[in-house]
Specification:
- The structure is a single chain.
- This protein is of the alpha/beta class and 471 residues long.
- It folds into two domains: 239 residues, Threonine synthase, N-terminal domain (threonine synthase, domain 1, chain A); 125 residues, Rossmann fold (3-Layer(aba) Sandwich), CATH 3.40.50.
- 43% of the residues lie in helices and 15% in strands.
- The protein has 18 helices and 15 strands.
- Helix 2 crosses helix 3, helix 9 crosses helix 10 and helix 14 packs across helix 15.
- The longest helix has 20 residues.
- The chain is globular and about 55 Å long.
Length: 471
């Protein structure tokens, strides 16, 4: 069963999945963490591991149904292992970009639509549901792909105009489906995210849900790759069973690293979690001084998926940190009214570091020069945080650096690290391939971008009209 971070009303797994956001505006958390022994998963492949973990979180579904949907979901990935790990000394890059849109969001967003389909069947829900989601880049393309063949579910994606990479925008805007609409909003990601939350609260008469990590079924599949990474390291004799390791995660909305928090809470031998931010360092400052303050300049950076000042999943962290729905609600109301709150982090295993744009480019080149391994800007931010962590703590434990996107998602930024400038984003894909002798993923073949740009003040009426067309 699940309840809101701001209230104790219990709902079933299918209800939490279809609702996306709780009625009181809070996020769903599981009422009681399931028992998952990682040693019981030691001989499983990724798909089986995922089915067992998700079935533990959502026990109302039959295991065989979840396993069938997961097998189908991950069949579109370019590797049977679903994810890969690349060792570079004590750091192991966890490649989460082998899905159809070349980003880590695929790991959850090929599964979420299928869990929603099972939820509709379980509840006997026949009305069309519209997924309304905001994206800072990767969620949009992955969500559109994930929901493309799911009957009875439509999707509207909002992204900040000029606030995503050209490849990310091309992925979204070239997507053609009768059940989808993509809107470029004049504003930043936080404007898009706030719009979605407000639209939910003011349109309870509509059948709405979310594909953002505010949806518990978007978050839960991300727990799997923490378990898989640890077990991979044990299987390959890189660590001994029971050894503790670190995870280093580039994060803006706090969903990816919160999945690591859940994995540690479930008993996986995680020593520390390293939270990596770009110049928008609101999370770093929070972990450093206990104050979350969104009243600050917003920067558009070369790691745009982390250009976020309101990290939605931090609300779940606050709930577990306070163990109080009332206190969580109080803190979130303070953020809405005052733009800030203060909270002393009770979990001493979180470390946080931020990286500016210039250093991000330096790290991309450094990793390639040292290991002949090419990383995207977000992964570079994470690797720099890892180096800062080692420098501060002298900790020599194996660390998994979560690599969230293919370099091909951000070819211009990667090339700039090597003093190569290509103004045309699509041409830069070929330049990157030629320079580093890398095969271009087949999915990177898009027509010219055609945007639908909507002013923020016009968004409510526009989205209302779009949803009516879906019904």
């Amino acid at each position: 069963m699940f309840h809101s971070t701001r209230g104790n009303k219990l709902v079933s797994s299918p209800e939490a999945i279809l609702n996306g956001l709780a009625d009181d505006g809070g996020l769903y958390v599981i009422d009681k963490l399931p028992k998952i022994n990682y040693e019981d998963l030691m001989n499983d492949d990724y798909q089986t591991m995922a089915a067992k973990i998700l079935n533990a979180f959502f026990p109302e579904f039959d295991y065989k149904d979840i396993k069938r949907e997961i097998d189908d979901a991950y069949s579109s990935f370019d590797t049977n292992e679903v994810v890969k790990l690349k060792g570079c000394d004590k750091a192991y890059f966890l490649e989460l970009f082998h899905g159809p849109t070349l980003a880590f969001k695929d790991l959850a967003l090929v599964v979420l639509p299928r869990l929603m389909k099972l939820s509709k069947e379980k509840l006997g829900y026949e009305k069309n549901i519209t997924i309304l989601t905001a994206t800072s880049g990767d969620t949009g393309g992955a969500a559109l792909n994930g929901f493309k063949s799911i009957p009875g579910i439509s999707i509207v994606v909002l992204y900040p105009n000029g606030g995503v990479s050209p490849v990310q925008e091309a992925q979204m805007c070239s997507f053609i489906s009768k059940n989808s609409k993509v809107l470029a909003i004049e504003g930043n990601f936080d404007d898009c995210q706030n719009f979605v939350k407000k639209f939910f609260s003011e349109h309870k008469d509509l059948s709405l849900s979310s594909a953002n990590s505010i949806n518990i079924a978007r978050l839960a599949p991300q727990i799997v790759y923490y378990f898989y990474s640890y077990i991979y390291l044990v299987r390959n004799n890189i660590i001994k069973n029971g050894d503790k390791i670190n995870f280093d995660v580039p994060t803006g909305n706090f969903g990816n690293i919160f999945a690591g928090f859940y994995a540690k809470s479930l008993g996986l031998p995680i020593k520390n979690l390293i939270c990596a931010s770009n110049k928008n360092s609101v999370l770093t400052d929070f972990f450093m001084n206990g104050k979350y303050d969104k009243k600050r300049p917003f920067f558009k950076t070369n790691s745009p998926s982390m250009d976020i000042l309101i990290s939605s999943n931090l609300e779940r962290f606050l709930y577990y940190g306070t163990n109080s729905e009332a206190k969580t609600k109080e803190l979130m109301e303070s953020l809405t009214k005052n733009g800030e709150y203060e909270f002393k982090n009770p979990f001493d295993y979180f470390y946080a570091y931020s990286t500016n744009e210039e250093k991000t480019l330096e790290v991309i080149k450094e990793v390639y020069d040292n290991y002949k391994y090419l990383v995207d800007p977000h992964t570079a931010v994470a690797y720099n945080a890892y180096k800062s962590y080692v420098n501060e703590t002298k900790d020599n434990a194996i660390t998994v650096v979560v690599s969230t996107a293919s370099p091909y998602k951000f070819p211009q930024a990667v090339l700039k690290a090597f003093d190569v400038v290509e103004e045309d984003a699509m041409k830069s894909i070929n330049v990157l391939s030629n320079k580093f002798n890398l095969e271009i993923p087949s999915v990177l073949n898009y027509p010219p971008v055609k945007r639908t740009i909507v002013k923020l003040e016009d968004s409510v009426k526009y989205v209302e009209d779009v949803i009516k067309c879906f019904e």
